[in-house]
């Protein structure tokens, strides 16, 4: 009798685990999605208003240093067959409300060092 119960439980658990891929799980995006073409529009000496116009408001502004903005984006995949989880970030540094440096997971345009005024 005990062997039958264990066998039934084992078979039931195997059958239920086979159905695990049938459950739909959504992808969970968080943060600012930045397009590569928008990041390439950044130029040195842009004002904060111009950066907001191009990229939108940053996810995080440093509480102690108002001249550093963080754009973060994270995608947590619900199902592995849709791809891997990933995270991208971009940091923008300002001096006197003008862009001085941009670092992160995005490639800047070749014209980044050329200000818009020229």
Automatic annotation (TrEMBL):
It is found in: Cell outer membrane. GO terms for cellular component: Bam protein complex. It comes from the Bacteria. One of its GO terms (biological process) is Gram-negative-bacterium-type cell outer membrane assembly. Its main location: membrane. GO terms for molecular function: protein-macromolecule adaptor activity. PROSITE patterns: PROKAR_LIPOPROTEIN. Residues 31-103 form the Outer membrane protein assembly factor BamE domain. It is a lipid-anchor. Keywords: Cell outer membrane, Lipoprotein, Membrane, Palmitate, Signal, Viral envelope protein, Virion. Gene3D superfamilies: 3.30.1450.10. Residues 1-20 form the signal peptide. Transmembrane segments: none annotated. PANTHER family: OUTER MEMBRANE PROTEIN ASSEMBLY FACTOR BAME (PTHR37482:SF1). Part of the outer membrane protein assembly complex, which is involved in assembly and insertion of beta-barrel proteins into the outer membrane. Belongs to the BamE family. Part of the Bam complex. This is Outer membrane protein assembly factor BamE. It comes from Paraglaciecola hydrolytica. The gene is bamE.
């Amino acid at each position: 009798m005990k062997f039958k119960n264990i066998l039934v439980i084992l078979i039931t658990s195997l059958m239920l685990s086979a159905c695990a891929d049938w459950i739909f799980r959504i992808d969970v995006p968080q943060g600012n999605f930045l397009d590569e073409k928008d990041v390439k529009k950044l130029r040195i000496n842009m004002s904060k208003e111009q950066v907001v116009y191009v990229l939108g408001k940053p996810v995080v502004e440093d509480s102690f240093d108002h001249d550093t903005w963080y754009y973060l984006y994270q995608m947590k995949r619900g199902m592995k067959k849709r791809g891997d989880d990933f995270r991208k970030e971009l940091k923008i540094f300002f001096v006197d409300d003008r862009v001085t440096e941009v670092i992160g997971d995005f490639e800047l345009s070749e014209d980044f060092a050329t200000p818009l005024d020229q």
